[in-house]
Amino acid sequence: MNAPGLVLIFAVAVLYSTGFYLLLQRSLMRVVFGIVILGHAANLSLMLTDHAITLPPLLTGKDGPISDPLPQAMALTAIVITFGVTTFLLALAYRVWLGDDNDEVPADLEDRRIGRLSEPEDSS
Amino acid sequence: MSGDEPARAGPSPGRAAGEWGRADRSGAPPENWEAPRERWLSTAVRPAFGPRSVLLEVAARLLTPAILVFSVFLLVSGHDRPGGGFAGGLVASMAYVLRYIAGGRRELAAGIPMRPNGLLALGMLLVCGTAAAPLLAGHPMLEVYSYTAHHLPLFGEVKFASYLLFESGVFLIVVGLVLSVVAALGARMEAEEEEIRGRRRSGGAGAAKGERP
Amino acid sequence: MNTLLAVPVLVPLLGAAASLLMRRAPRLQQGVAVAALTAVVVDTVLLLRVTADGSVITSQAGAWEAPLGVTVVADPLSSLMLAVSAVVLLVVQLFAIGQDIAGLSRAMPQVFHPIYLVLTAGVCLCFLAGDLFNLFVGFEIMLTASYALITQAPTRARVRASMIYTVVSLTSSILFLTGIALIYGLTGTVNLADIAVKLGGAPEELRMVLALLFLVVFGIKAALVPMHFWLPDSYPVAITRISAIFAALLTKVAVYAIIRSQTLLFGRDDISAVLLCVAIATMLVGIFGALVQDDINRLMSFALVSHIGFMIFGLGLNSVAGLAAVVVYLVHHIVVQANLFLVNGLIRQYAGHSSLRAMRGLNTVSPVMSFYFFIPAMSLAGLPPLSGFVAKAALFQAGVGVGGWLVYTALAAGVATSLLTVMAVFRIWVRGFWGTPMPDMVEARERLKRGSHLAGLRFMAAMTGVMVAIGLVVAGAAGPLSEIAFIAGHDLMNGTAYIEAVLGEGAAR
Amino acid sequence: MLLPAILALHAAVAALLPLLADRFGARIFLLAGLPPAAAAVWALANASGILSGAPVTAGIAWAPALKIGLDFRVDGLSLAMTLLVSGVGAIIFGYCAAYFRADERGLGRLAAIMVLFAGSMLGVVTTDNLFALYVFWELTSITSFLLVGHEDHKEQARRAATQALVTTTGTGLLMLIGFIMLGTAAGDYSISGLVADPPEGGPWLTGALVLVLVGAFAKSAQVPLHFWLPAAMVAPTPVSAYLHAAAMVKGGVYLVARLAPGFAEAGVWQALVLSVGLATMIVGGWRALRQDDLKLLLAYGTVSQLGFLTLLGGAGTQVAATAMIGTLIAHGLFKSALFLSVGVIDHETGSRSISRLSGLGRRMPLLAAVATLAAASMAGLPPLIGFAAKEAALEAFVPGAAPSPPPVAAGAMLAGVALASVLTFAYSARFVWGAFAVKPTVAENRAGAPSPLFAAAPVVLAALSLVLGIAPALVDHLAQGYAHALPAGHKPYHLALWHGLTPTLLLTVLVVAAGVALFLKRRAVGRLQNAMPRWPDAEYGYHLFLHGVYTVALSVTRRSQSGSLPVYLGIILATILALPGVRLVAGLITGGIAVPGPEDGLRIWDSPLELLVATVIVVTSIATVREHRRFPSLILLNVVGFGTAGLFVLHGAPDLALTLVLVETLTTIILVFVLRRLPTTFSVRPDGWGKRLTVLLCTAAGSFIALALWLMTAARSGDPVSTGYADRAGEAGGTNLVNMILADFRALDTLGEVVVLVTAAVAVSSLVLLNRRDRVVDESSAEPAVPAPGNAGGTGEDPGPPGTGALALPVHTAGAEAVGGEPAERDPRRGPESDAADADAEAPEAPEAPEAPDESEGPAGGRRGDSEQGEDSDDER
């Protein structure tokens, strides 16, 4: 009886899909957006391991099932971690932009150099 | 956590230099993210966005103590109702972000009691110290100790628990994080932008007087 | 026990906090860092002594019992990893101090030491975590510290490289979190031992899905083919001390996580076939990449990828001997990889770069440095009598002992990879160390001899020498090491000891 | 336990030598000779005991759990090998003291490595553990790599060293696998135990033996793996004399002989050993016949002799074993003597080419006599030890004289041995003639006689050949010590000069006659050799192998390592789909995973509100993807966040919702800080297959995760552990469970989390708050390679090819301001733009160019000169 409703599952699927899609873009900012959305998706997934509509996990004496506090605590931790790391990613994106004057994820130069070789450079 | 203290508006550039720059052995000019670069900013301090709004600035100043009190409430009452160190810290830092948005980086500098780095280090010491203290008695780390004062005037029965210290550390760290991010991604960029603007002007006219005509 | 298990995490963190306050006193920062790391080394060695007989010790953070509170666990595998990592961390730290003395870290803000200590704590927490979510947190500490470190002295190349590194790592973190959600959804717990018990009652197919998902999650960080691309693009670009510690430790932490999860959590299902295929691909693709590189650091990074494949090979054997071989391999590889990257740091002093295309005659320029390079290079190539040989002998022995056509294929790939590794590392030797020295390298040597950097450089060289010596000690102590490795392998294959140590007698049923 | 101590002495002396080289010059070789001399003396002192059947054993535990142990066991065979390896070694070290000049480069290193080699070789021939054998075996490979490459400024030397290393370590690895297979089959890694009680036959054993033999053959330069040995002749002559005549190349022969008593009966063994040995013997002899460089002549002669030894060692009969020990000793003595003589000639005249030497017999009579004596031993003439050994060898294959090999094979072997002996005689004669004769067409060399010390070593070695020839009983004693382990023939056989008028004696006479004829007709032979088609050369195979490996490596790397982040992430997603994704689908199809029905959890929603919020999230997140303007997409992102927070509220998570709203607000503000600097729209990817594929991939991955989540949560049985928290809340003193978990129950997670925050904060500020001038730090000033005077940043160093450094572009910082003179990317390999990398790729290979002149010197020259005859003109890539 634990599984969440299909609507929410669908929402999670959409969040992950859009997050992944943004992540696969070349624009740095969209990559950051992707991480933010994926963060929501993961936190929502944690939440969905629990029964649906329930009371908050506050022991106030009210009747009724309370929601599972552990995923909430984990999601809270994850939200804050994601926030910290996202700000770093943002600073990094800004710096890439500062250096290259280009809002795109740069490709690795050495890889591209090797990619252009047609013959092994030395085989001795 | 002190509230708004206009009297401490802006640390002197020298002190700032000491904090940020000395460690850099290159002998480069000291880095001070908050102290104004007087050359370029003799007359005006721009807020982060748009023209300066006195109303917003005053509102922000007035709101700050209230927000801070609320954040402390969240911190202290976290064990029994929604809140806690994170929420409290985030709310407290909101106060500063608001001030920054309203009044620019100078306004921000005026409001904060301590450098973000100090907050971070202090918070981390608190958190880790609380975590490590039980080890001295051979107990597992992070064990919570509490002491209940039964007959306190005015408050009656009050419980002091070591997790409050822990939460305070969390609170400080969250505030420190937001402040350093605002300082880095907001104030710093702002300063750069002004510098560029000023340089462009001085390159043309040779006199960088102020921001506005 | 409580203290022993808490020190590797808390002491570096306290040191980091103190160190953050001392930004104006670099000497003091160095002192704090060395003191904290020394404490960790002493502590982890004691831990190793306690657990060397196969016992598993635990501590419940906050004194709450196991599935509720967070458990910190040390078994032979984790304490061995801790001890080796701590020693390597300390030596690299001292190397970094040498660089500071030589004035080579001028442009870096004084945050290296605190963040390095945070990295230490993160690595230790990963090894000690007895809780899946806590493992996630440990990973995050380690990764965030690594983001901060890889961007030290940010050139444009470094910023680019760290972008790739950060985004890939973040992706793996998100997937890790997703995996935790799935596991919690299925079992309702995050305590590793408890998960192990509860997964027993779960449908096998779902367990397999989780096992594979976690293989991917940790495989990204361990740089398993086909998820290895980010590593050779990012590690070589960081400054010496940082690429050394990254290459030595970060992937190994992920390998540790793979071992732990695939044995303790998913041990009852057999995904050896997948592991072996991944291992074959990783070994070959990695070493092929190494063969065509011109930059020593990049070459080493590809070789690193390739040799992760050896460890996965051992894990895929799914036998005590295989796991024991992996443990030996891990210890060997941590030391050797750190060593090689430190030597590359020394090479940069003479050559100014690490490209083989403009490098000749280092052998003549600095015989001592050539020695420091040759020993770990031999060891990496698995040539006797060094630790690499012991590890490889253990691995091949385990492979032959298991048998089966897939294992034989993997063995063949392992032999081919070993030969290609010989070719790759000796290519560095032949092209970079042999030949008539480049004139500017000779000049550089003369300048270094006269310069004010000499003391620092000597210290750096001495630390590299210490690392070489540690590598030799690992080879010499192969007896005790392999004994502990077999005990660890036995514990891993069995799992009962771990579960009962965490959850109490009889919990493993 | 003295033997391990002697081995340790080798290592200790080796460590000492580089320190002493500056002070003592070439005299350090006298010190270097002490450990081998000690080993030889030790062997002699223990000889009687060992030969009487009591092997000396010693052992040092290394890794017992892995069955790796340094166990030693010296029996008859080991004793013979020890005497050869260490005895001849000591003599050669003495010779080195005279050969090398004090100003030779890297003298200390050379001496040290030679001592290490001597120690490793001693280990090879005395150890009793398969792993330890491999250890010492590979140590000889590595030391020989360093010795061959000693003159590392020569391209030729580097190439030859690499070739030898790759060949021997590659096959060594196969051998290791073979050892492990043997050890696993027998449950024992001790060689003596393995030989005494060999594992059962079968494909397993066959495979193991083939692998082991491949390693042995490569080490002993057997056809077709022989090519590395002649190439390795670029090493200094004493090194060649030691490694490539006396010691290292005997390793494979030793291994064959060592295992023969246990495995000679195995079918594959005899077939392999006998055929390879025979082929090597003839190919080597045939090629030796036409070399111009004396050293190469000897090298091919060595190849031939090694084939001979392999043949004898593998035959597995007492007579053959006796012959093998005799030949082993004889070859070690005469070949070293000959190499050392060539060294003297080279040293005195500066040439080793037959076509340039003339009249040395007159100038160096002593040397000529010594070399002739040694060559006579090689040719198998009485009264030298070589003769006695060859007699034994012929005897071993007289059909019917021994139970194995079968008569037909034995006849073939006998014919082969005879043919090889003819060739040997011919090239021996050619050697003496080429080195010392007066040739009318060649100007006479002007060279003085060598110093007595210099000539001493060849004299001693040749004299030993003679003494042992006259008194072969000494060697016979050794030989019987080994041979008695093998099945006996019809009658006992001893090494002697005179056995009476036997068929073998007759054969010897025939051999000598044919050899003389072959020598006299050398011009005709040369023409014949030129006329013969060139055999497919194994060296060509080696180059093919290398080229193949590098081509495969390049194409794999080029295809896999694209350097593009979106591609990398796409592959990660694809892996998720390929591994757990496929598994999940497979489970659903086979029914291994239960799909919950309406009765156990399948429902659309729990409240209409949920549907509303979910719709908002879905719509806005899809809109975020489609929106390319920066601020609208930021607002959409924000709505996604708040929508998620709304779901949290519905799920009874006010703490979470509160935190998420706060975090979302802060994130938005910070995003605005950065976004206002960036372009107003994001770059858009063109529509097309790539985009469609991306959409498909992402949708599949997202759906997989959601589906897995649904199935997993549905499959949970039992309550989560968190129900325990409510019971313990009283103990902890609070009512908000989430906060209690964060601050108390699982405070360690929170501790870690805040550490992450601190680190992120420090990282952000250290990344952005750099001094202006350091904003983009120069690579070399961050870690200055060489702080050049007057250029503190070290930016003046640009060791790369010219032209790339200048391509460093100024960096544009915020807005349009260019930081002038920004020395961005100094690393020559990492040009800031692809043009730079292009220029780089096309730059000529500078490092190799200056070394071309070197190739005209040394053995390379000899080989080149030889190529006019159409041989060895291997295209060197």
Automatic annotation (TrEMBL), chain A:
**GO CC entries:** plasma membrane
Q: Which UniProt keywords apply?
A: Cell membrane, Membrane, Transmembrane, Transmembrane helix
Subcellular localization, per the record?
A: Cell membrane
Q: Which Pfam families match?
A: Oxidored_q2 (PF00420)
Q: Which Gene3D superfamilies match?
A: 1.10.287.3510
Membrane topology term reads: Multi-pass membrane protein
Is Cell membrane a UniProt keyword of this protein?
yes
**Any stretches that span the bilayer, and where are they?**
6-24, 31-53, 73-94
Q: Domain of life of the organism in this record?
A: Bacteria
Entry similarity comment: Belongs to the CPA3 antiporters (TC 2.A.63) subunit C family.
Q: Which PANTHER family match?
A: ANTIPORTER SUBUNIT MNHC2-RELATED
Q: What is this protein called?
A: Sodium:proton antiporter
Q: From what organism does this protein derive?
A: Streptomonospora alba
Automatic annotation (TrEMBL), chain B:
Record's InterPro entries? CPA3_antiporter_subunitB, MnhB
Q: How does it sit in the membrane?
A: Multi-pass membrane protein
User: From start to end residue, where is composition biased (Low complexity)?
Assistant: 8-18
**Keywords from the named record:** Cell membrane, Membrane, Transmembrane, Transmembrane helix
- GO CC, alphabetical: plasma membrane
* Stretches the record annotates as Disordered: 1-35
What subcellular compartments does it reside in? Cell membrane
| Segments forming domain Na+/H+ antiporter MnhB subunit-related protein | 56-179
Q: What is this protein called?
A: Na+/H+ antiporter MnhB subunit-related protein domain-containing protein
Species for this entry: Streptomonospora alba
TrEMBL record, chain C:
Q: Which Pfam families match?
A: Proton_antipo_M
- Choose one Gene Ontology CC annotation of this protein and give it: plasma membrane
Per the record, membrane topology reads: Multi-pass membrane protein
The entry's localization annotation reads: Cell membrane; Membrane
Q: Reply yes or no: does the keyword Acetylation apply.
A: no
Q: GO MF annotations for this entry?
A: NADH dehydrogenase (ubiquinone) activity
TM segment ranges: 28-48, 68-95, 115-143, 164-186, 206-231, 238-259, 271-292, 368-386, 406-430, 455-478
All copies of domain NADH:quinone oxidoreductase/Mrp antiporter transmembrane, residue ranges: 129-417
Q: What InterPro entries does its record include?
A: CPA3_Na-H_Antiporter_D (IPR050586), NADH_UbQ_OxRdtase (IPR003918), ND/Mrp_TM (IPR001750)
Which Gene Ontology terms describe the biological processes this protein takes part in?
ATP synthesis coupled electron transport
- Major localisation: membrane
Q: State the UniProt keywords alphabetically.
A: Cell membrane, Membrane, Transmembrane, Transmembrane helix
Return the similarity comment: Belongs to the CPA3 antiporters (TC 2.A.63) subunit D family.
User: What protein name is recorded for this chain?
Assistant: Cation:proton antiporter
Organism, by scientific name, is Streptomonospora alba
Q: What is the lineage of its organism?
A: Bacteria, Bacillati, Actinomycetota, Actinomycetes, Streptosporangiales
